[in-house]
Model the fold of this input.
Amino acid sequence: MPPLKLTLVVAVALVDTDNRILLAQRPEGKQLAGLWEFPGGKLEPGERPEESLIRELREELGITVKEACLAPLTFASHAYESFHLLMPLYICRRWEGFVQPLEGQTLKWVRPHELRAYPMPPADEPLIPFLIDLLGA
Ligand code: C5P
Done:
């Protein structure tokens, strides 16, 4: 069997001053619609992960993040049927602007212990215990 194509997606745990994490619901018409994910997206050719995340956060949420405010946390990895997803997760506590759902997505700020109540793509779900350990409940 040929190896699965590797797809790189970057994601971020945006954490507000109340220790809540931002989740975005994948909109209708997209693969995995209705599931909740950490914001982010696919790397474009030639982009570094941090550049990609800064672009995605501007496009999807209308916020400006400085590269120095993005700290790498861990990696998620999942073999979907047609590609293998590799997804570094960053954490970010400081940004400029107000978070807005610019792509029609529903947004929710949730406490770490509430994350399990939101159905997530299989790549994102294993990140939950990691975030609970890091941020507390
Ligand atoms: O967001 P986008 O549709 O570009 O992501 C490509 C694919 O990566 C999705 O179809 C999904 O399978 C996967 N993905 C994921 N978790 C995320 C973002 C994307 O599993 N947080």
